[in-house]
Amino acid sequence: MKNNFSFLILFLLVQQVIAQKDSVVSKEIVSLKYYNENASMQYLVLENKLKTGKKTEPLRNKTFQLFLDSIAAPNKIGSVTTDNDGKAKSFLPPALKGSWEASAQHKFLAVAPGKEDETAAELEIIKAKINIDTLAGAEARSIVVQVMKYENTEWTPASDVEMKVGVQRLGGVLSAGDEETYTTDSSGAVTVELTKDSLPGDQQGNIVLVAKVEDNDLYGSLFVEKAVPWGIAIKSGNNFFDQRKLWATNFRTPLWLLFMAYSIVIGVWGTIIYLVLQIIRIKKIGTASS
Amino acid sequence: MLVENATSLSEQITQDLLPKKFGRRGMIWTAVLILFCIIGAYAYYRQLRYGLVVTNMRDYASWGIYISNFIFFVAISLVGSLITAIFRLTDVKWATPLTRIAEIIAVSAIVFASLIIIVDMGRPERLLNLFVYGRIQSPIMWDVIVIGTYFIISLLLLYFPLLPDLKILIHFKEKSGKALNKLYRFQGSFWRGTAEQFKITNRSIRILCIAIVPVAFSIHTVTSWLFATTYRPGWDSTNFGAYFISGAFLVGAGGVVVAMYVFRKYYVLEKYITVKHFEHMGKVVVMLALLYLYFNINEYMIPAFKMKKTEQAHLSGLFTGEFAILFWFAIVAGMIVPIIIMLFKRGRKPLPMFIAGIMIVVGAWFKRYLIVTPTLLHPILPMQDVPASYHHYFPSWEEWAIAIGSLSGALLIITFFARIYPIIPIQETITEKLEESEEMTHGKAYQRESEYYEKPVLTPKEQAHEK
């Protein structure tokens, strides 16, 4: 029993020492992410951070060179420098259009300057695109999203792709149905019924439907949006800012407040002026009597 | 015989109360204050040069010791209305020697209240925008208006009772020196002491005493509304105006007690600021401390009883958390201990009163800090994705230097005032002492015949009227 207890203490101590040793090891992490927005804007985001134990901190002002498929001058996407969050962004330049269209699969490479023989980060993706459409019936309104991948020189449906489908609100994406995420079927499609009605839209009643594939292992991050007139038009009162209210500008001060404030100010400052006049009077009396 | 006694008494009072040159201690005291002011000015230069980033105020604790200092100054300035106005209006005779002390504390505090609020601005030149684009709907605008008004009224209340004393000061040219005499002449050479002048002055003082009370109440109520009109834990109270005013009276009275002791000791004024004055002030301070304690119980016990989720973190921080030491110090040292000291007759002697006064003033300064900062560090929406340092606040050396510099500046105004003007009203003291001696000598009338504190001189018009 005593022996067992000693072993337990020894084991815990060894664990503690190992854990402490682990916690002081620092490791620099460079990661790449690919984004495709509305099938038109494609860009890469590089993130550079330092991991010390369980803590990570962004590495600022670090420069990297980005390449498409291979580390060669003609394939250079650009040179980027990390910001305060340790992130840097680069768009695919038009000069690489030929290389991009030549293949269905691509590799993005990040290297630190002066270390061209050593890849800092690598990301492989299959070209994919995402479309959004709507089906509006008499009783229900549905959102149809389709993800297509480029394979054997043609676009084919991409199945088993998880995504968010919903309505863009100020704080994020409000899911269209009851599920948090949806997955494409064998036809590469997802159909979601918009169960939320009476959503406030813009002045014309438009809301923005969105579909978002986040950090997919094969296709990267895909995003598409479409404005539809399914919301409730928000009519802001034409006279909202013209009212005499407490929140209005100084030109629209409530009359009761103006009356109160000016009565008090005039009353008190009138008294002060009267008292200053009394000093002048005292002075006159003094001058006259001398 | 009676006239001779009156004259010698008047001369004695005048000699005792005329402003005196700084001694060695006075010089050291003034030099130290000036040094603190210079360090504060340098820290402010750094703040102007590098921006508010030199402070430790960040997104959440955006009001730090500058605003605490501002409330402290506004609070202590209220004593002018208590001692000078309320006591005058209620004919409290014993408070006469304390009126000028109270008024100069009020004026110096209000000057630095105005300055410290500008210091808190990252772009002080934008103060002008307040007047160009100011909205009367904003409590900040109300504060600017009442502070300006209170300053002017306090200055007038300081100036009117000073007029008869200026004549006395002008008379003692060789004692005051050329430069000061020039100043006295500029301010009061027209004072002849005629009945008409006395009449106008007395009426003006009475009007001022009435006018200053609502303005003084406004200044601190509006300052409290800067907080109470904001929906935040600790500030969301309908009681804030009364709570602030009661606290202001307490710290102001505490400040007067400290000043009474220091002036009495330094200028040897034991005959004028007597043990009786401490006795009376002790009773007043106990009443004010009890009143403020009552409001504190209301402000903290009732929310603690309900312990609403939004208030929980704030109240726990005060009672048992990171602000607990300061909080209990402010309550115990700033209120409870002074009450215990001054409840007893022995505690209302000058030295215990002085110690209690210091405790009240120091406790009050920290109390203002506790009103401002803990609330800002406990917003209703949780603090997310911010650096760890944003969760706490401790002032930077620049903030301390500016805050201490401003306190030194206020003390410097009081110090220079006491060097230039009589800190106890001479004329009023003479009148009161003569009245007292007149009452003692069978109620006989006396004639004040002296070249500088005489019976009001009647102008030919007044003489004709009297006939």
Any chance you could write out the topology, listing elements then pairs?
The complex is a heterodimer of chains A (290) and B (467).
Chain A: H1 2-24, E1 26-37, E2 41-52, E3 55-58, E4 63-68, E5 76-81, E6 87-91, H2 97-102, E7 105-111, E8 119-126, E9 128-136, E10 141-151, E11 154-157, E12 162-169, E13 172-175, E14 182-183, E15 189-193, E16 207-216, E17 220-228, H3 255-289
Parallel strand pairs in A: 1-17
Antiparallel strand pairs in A: 1-2, 2-3, 2-6, 4-5, 4-7, 7-8, 9-10, 10-11, 10-15, 12-13, 12-14, 12-16, 16-17
Chain B: H1 2-17, H2 24-50, H3 65-77, H4 79-89, H5 96-119, H6 127-133, H7 139-159, H8 162-171, H9 173-176, H10 178-188, H11 195-228, H12 240-266, H13 275-306, H14 309-319, H15 324-343, H16 350-376, H17 397-420, H18 426-440, H19 460-466
Helix pairs in contact in B: 1-18, 2-17, 3-5, 3-11, 3-12, 3-16, 4-5, 4-11, 4-12, 5-7, 5-12, 5-17, 7-11, 8-10, 11-12, 12-13, 12-16, 13-15, 14-15, 15-16
Average pLDDT for all residues of chain B = 89
**Separation, N- and C-terminal Cα atoms of chain A:** 112 Å
* Whole-angstrom Rg of chain A: 33 Å
Number of domains of chain A: 2
Q: What fraction of the residues of chain A are assigned to beta strands by DSSP?
A: 35-45%
Run of helices and strands of chain A: HEEEEEEHEEEEEEEEEEEH
CATH class of chain B: Mainly Alpha
Helix content of chain A: 10-25%
Multimeric state:
heterodimer
What's the architecture of chain B, going by CATH? Up-down Bundle
Instruction: Indicate the overall shape of chain A.
Output: extended
CATH H-level superfamily of chain B = Formate dehydrogenase/DMSO reductase domain
Largest sheet descriptor of chain A? 9 strands, mixed
The helix fraction of chain B, in percent, is over 70%
